[in-house]
Amino acid sequence: MEITSNHSIDKSVSPAVENSFPGQIHETPGGGIVLSKLDDVINWARSNSLWPLTFATSCCGIEMMSVAAAKYDFSRFGFEVARASPRQADVIIIAGTIVNKMAPVLKRLYDQMADPKYVIAMGACAISGGPFFYNTYSVVKGADHVIPVDVYVAGCPPRPEALLHALISLQEKIKSGQTREQIQVPKPAAGGDILHQL
Amino acid sequence: MTIEALKEKITALLPSVLFEEGGQWPTILVEPADWHKVAVLLRQDDSLSFDFLFCLTCIDWKTHLTMVYHLDATSYRHNLVVKVKVEKVNPAIETVSDIWQTANFHEREVYEMFGVNFLNHPDLRLLILPDGWEGKNPLLKDFEDPINMIKL
Amino acid sequence: MVEEIGSTAAGDIIINVGPQHPATHGVLHLVITINGETIQKVEPHLGYIHRSIEKMCESLTYRQFIYVTSRMDYLSSHINNHACALCVEKGLQIEVPSRAQVIRVLMDELTRIASHELWWGAMAMDLGAFTPFFHAFREREAINDIMEETCGARLTMNYMVPGGVMQDIHPNFQSRVKEFIALFKSKVSEYNELVTGNIIFQNRMKGVGNLSAADAISFGCTGPTARGSGVSCDIRKLYPYEIYDTLNFEEILETGGDSFARYMVRVREMSQSISIIEQLIDNIPEGDFQAKTKAVLKLPKGEFYQRVETARGEFGVYIVSEGGTTPYRIKYRSPGFSNLSALDHMARGSKLGDLVAMMGTLDLVIPDIDR
């Protein structure tokens, strides 16, 4: 009995289920047995049901709403339920410029989200300050000065397809086990430093 | 009312104001000490009745500041621009938020951006800038912020 | 970030709505003093999207500063760009060719419809009806596709330049717009059936958020917010620019002064915009799409003000120039800033659930307010 790595495909399985469930499916009389690593199954489940937080500060928010609408639907990728409360959300899509007055609010929202949480920086403003980089006194030059970001999407605003590509990349990143919170250093024993390891 | 008739009416009502040349609308220059009285007259006179203040702003000319008020009358649809010259150091002027309620927010914005103190304003505090903003008023020409502002 | 807000009577509690809230359409922070469910005072705290645009524009040239206004009121991005281009043309005395004028007006009216569509969908969603959101976006996507073919972008299109438009319209433009007109006309009755005639919707909107005409003028409200109270303030009719004085359309006025009146003004304005587009789409004159201008624009010393009618109200661009290549001072008179100042006056004495209906009918776009 071999336990193979992620996404290995048993030849007895039809191609239609390639890359869907990570693991080996062995046909046995009366059903089948699935063999997999628990980590892979958990990553697969998490990546396919990420609930975004409704956080839109400016123009990129409209493109995010377009992605939520019927033409470029993101609920087919599992992002169906957009929660308003950060306690119930998994991914925060920072759509719009972050300014000095909003930065503590963003940090507070991020802190309120439960682990595992992911961040997508959408649009030029969230990546680096964007068109408001020069000669402005109030813009934070990139949301990653405030919270750690997993995926960056370029554009001003990015097309809905670009945001969908970013969402799919985030899903693949989670399945690969390489996101920031999956490779974090184990926390020290009690009494040690309680800073969240980034 | 035509522009000529408007100018005559204003000269008749307020003989001490000066007109500025050029500009797309008639422009008058008023002293800061007289501004509130002039504003009340402009609002309440029946043939002028400027009841719509559509823009309130300030310009920093380095030696002094100029407050600019753009007025419109909804019944006659004539426009007027009023300019009031205020000093650069400790600028202060009467509020007009009791005459036109839109001035409430506009004056708060000018207060935080240029530092002009509006006397008798009901609620003069920061509106757009973060709470606890220390430092100079941002829209003044000598505003420097080496940390945040990246010059091209 | 706690500050003294003022004295409160016994039984009052102070709660925060926002800055991150699904119903505020952006980052608006309202500090509400309520007693039970009755609102005593609403105080907006702004500045959560203050991007220091006016300061930034003092270092941008007259061709460069136009893109920034797209991002201020992003739902009427063409109309804002149009205002800037007109102001610069006023300063330089540039004559815009008639083909460019017609194209600009067509783009403006399409943008107005797209903005009102999104407003309608988002407002119905705030009141709890999720379905109209998808209907609204279906039409909005049709308009975005038209824009994308001609201007290259869906939301922030820098298509207007001082002198005309940046590129000529795509050959498919006229046929696509005609298809859109046919599609849209069949939809307006659908909107009325879905939302306007709904008894629950009407009960939530009628009598809520009363704003009298005198108050609307005093607070500086413009656009559908003031037209719902009977104030005639459409800049396209009063101070016409481009070719609006040759077009045949009505200014929609309602006298109710409540949220339902403001709602009806916007819904009927969409039909007026469609009729303007119909009048123009077959008569686009031939000619240049851009007037010849110098490469580097320098406005003469002086001040120039241009007023246009965006989907939210009156937008004004005030340029003070000292003769250089960059403006000395730019002030943007945004419609949302004045419309928001009326919210406190409208909301006192109503219930908390009505506040959402009122904010919806004011149609606020917060980056427009904070600049």
General description of the model:
The complex is a heterotrimer of chains A (198), B (152) and C (371). Helices cover 26% and strands 13% of the residues of chain A. Chain A is α/β, with parallel strands linked by helices. Chain A is globular. Chain B is an alpha/beta fold and 152 residues long. In chain B, the strands form 2 sheets. In chain B, strands 1-2-5-4-3 form a 5-stranded mixed sheet, covered by helices on one side. Chain B has a two-stranded parallel ribbon with strand order 6-7. With 371 residues, chain C is of the alpha+beta class. Chain C is built from 15 helices and 8 strands. Chain C has a 3-stranded antiparallel sheet with strand order 1-2-3. Chain C has a 3-stranded antiparallel sheet with strand order 6-7-8. In chain C, strands 4-5 form a two-stranded antiparallel sheet. Chain C starts with 11 loop residues before the first strand and ends with a helix. The model of chain C has no long low-confidence stretch (mean pLDDT 88). The interface between B and C is large, with 34 and 39 residues.
Keywords:
heterotrimer; A: 198 residues; alpha/beta; Rossmann fold; 2 domains; 4-stranded parallel β-sheet; two-stranded antiparallel ribbon; 5 helices; 13% strand; disordered N terminus; B: 152 residues; Beta Polymerase, domain 2; two-stranded parallel sheet; 22% helix; 26% strand
Reported CATH architecture of chain B: 2-Layer Sandwich
CATH class of chain B: Alpha Beta
CATH topology of chain C: Cytochrome-c3 Hydrogenase, chain B
- Gyration radius of chain C, rounded: 21 Å
The averaged pLDDT of chain B comes out at 87
CATH topology of chain B: Beta Polymerase, domain 2
Number of strands of chain C: 8
- Net shape of chain B: elongated
Strand order of the largest sheet of chain B: 1-2-5-4-3
Examine the secondary-structure arrangement and name the CATH architecture of chain C.
Orthogonal Bundle
State the separation between the terminal residues of chain C, measured CA to CA: 22 Å
Number of domains of chain C: 1
Main structural class of chain C? alpha+beta
